[in-house]
Structures are given as structure tokens and as C-alpha cells.
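Supplementary Note 2. Why include the ligand at all?

Several targets in our set were suspected to adopt different conformations when bound, so apo predictions alone were not considered sufficient. For every target with a known small-molecule partner we therefore ran a joint prediction. The input for flavin-adenine dinucleotide is given below.
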Amino acid sequence: MVLEGDCSQITSPGQFVNIHLPGFYLRRPISVCDLEGDQLTLIYKTVGKGTAYMAERKTGETLLLLTGLGNGYDLSCAGSKPLLVGGGAGVPPMYFLAKRLCAEGKTVHVIMGFNRQDEIFFEEEFKKLGCRVTVTTVDGSYGKKGFVTDALPENYSYVYTCGPEPMLKAVYKAVQTEGQFSFEERMGCGFGACMGCSCRTLTGYKRICKDGPVLRKEEILWED
Ligand SMILES: Cc1cc2nc3c(=O)[nH]c(=O)nc-3n(C[C@H](O)[C@H](O)[C@H](O)COP(=O)(O)OP(=O)(O)OC[C@H]3O[C@@H](n4cnc5c(N)ncnc54)[C@H](O)[C@@H]3O)c2cc1C
Ligand code: FES
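The joint prediction is reproduced in C-alpha cell form.
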């Protein structure tokens, strides 16, 4: 979905927008996939009633969004060869991040994990940015068979990742370097007021919508 409007509050890759949908009490959080001037690109998977409603919208309709939410990724830690790992609906924020890192002259390697070939998107778009791209599919229908952790390279300076929690946990255990991990949590307000998205970390409780969604590897506390 490409939207046009005031995007001046969006400052970092990894931030998200929260979309008000008429008739739905809670807004739906979606990551910033790309931003060019006042054009915002979002990529979302239709999973329930809210995203189904979004998928039915037609060109020219208006949606109300809160923009520039969350902390986003800190690019200053990237080093010269950052590794970006995205799984499924966690791939979109990796694009905006890759774009910024490539613009800074970094050698960016992106690993994208999907279940099947028909779920894959943006492989060419990442390549056009100049990234090295590795695609994994669980069923082996495209790219390397297996999980993103089966495709980790030998050499990288830092890790940025976003995806389902089991994937984040596997990446956390497998990677050699420090990194930043973006988490999904059910949200109430989406801007830090209700505490509905709080989770425990090694440095105290954090609101995923405001203090996250990006947490640093060294502060993550996995609760089984
Ligand atoms: C920071 C953040 C960024 C996200 N970015 C993307 C993205 O770029 N692309 C994408 O496809 N999805 C993304 N998601 C997940 C997306 O928000 C949910 O898929 C969506 O809210 C589902 O709404 P629904 O009404 O279709 O589903 P329903 O299951 O009917 O939703 C019911 C309620 O649960 C919440 N909910 C359901 N699934 C999730 C989830 N995974 N995370 C948080 N809340 C959820 C909904 O917001 C809603 O309030 C992101 C989630 C978060 C927290
Ligand atoms: S959703 Fe309200 S504080 Fe995070």
C-alpha cells in the first residue's frame, strides 16, 4: 500500500505507523517499508479483519495514521558489513534500513526467510539497492532450503533483524556479533500511554511501542 501525506515524523528505519480503520477500536501497527518524500510504502499480510479491510481500500481513499512511532534502528552501530535478517512480515522494515545503509556506503547482506516461494517479495528491490541477497524457504521451493539461520554468512559486522519471535530467538542464539532485534507485540495506544505492550528486559520493563520495537541484543530477556 502506497500512501501520500505528511511523513515528517518518520526519522528512522524500524519505526512504524498505526492505522486507524473506521469501525475498528484499535489501530493496526505496520512497519515503514519505504519512504520517499511524502510517499510511504507499507507491505502487510492479510491475517484478520483489519488487514482484510485495508486490502479492500481503493486508490484515492483516505486513511488516518499516527506516524513516526517507535525508536527504530540505530544505524551508527552497523560497521562496514551489516547483516539484515527478515522473516515474512518482518522483511518490510529491512528494506528502508537497507536503503539507508547502502546510501552510507555499507556492504549490506540481506537474508530473507519465507515458508514458500509464493510468499516471497522484494528480492529484486533489495538487489537493486546493491545488497547481497539470500532467500530461504522452509519447504525448499526457492533459494536455500531451511531457516534464515541455515544461511548465516561467516563474516558480518553487526546484525539487524525483524520477524516472528521464534526466528528472533534462533537468530539471537546463532549470531556472533551484537545486534538489534525488532519485536511485535499487541498494542493498545501505540505511543507509550497505556503500558499494554510492556515486556520485561534485562534493563527493566520496556514498552514495545515507545521504547521499542527495536531492542538491543544485550537487553533481551527471553521468557518461555
Ligand atoms: C511494530 C509492528 C510492526 C508491524 N509491521 C508489520 C508489517 O510491516 N507487515 C505486516 O504484515 N504486519 C506487521 N505487523 C503485524 C500487524 O500489526 C498485524 O498483522 C495486524 O495488526 C493484524 O490485524 P488484523 O485486524 O488483520 O488481525 P486480527 O488478528 O483480527 O487483529 C486483532 C488484534 O490483534 C492485533 N494483532 C494481530 N496480530 C498482531 C501482530 N502480529 N502484532 C501486533 N498486533 C497484532 C491487531 O492489531 C488487532 O488489534 C506489525 C506489528 C507490529 C507490532
Ligand atoms: S501500546 Fe500503549 S504503551 Fe504501548
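The pocket of flavin-adenine dinucleotide (ligand 1) is lined by residues 16, 26, 28-31, 43-45, 47-51, 89, 92, 184-187, 213 (CB under 6 Å). The mean pLDDT is 97. Comparable summaries for the other entries are listed in the accompanying table.
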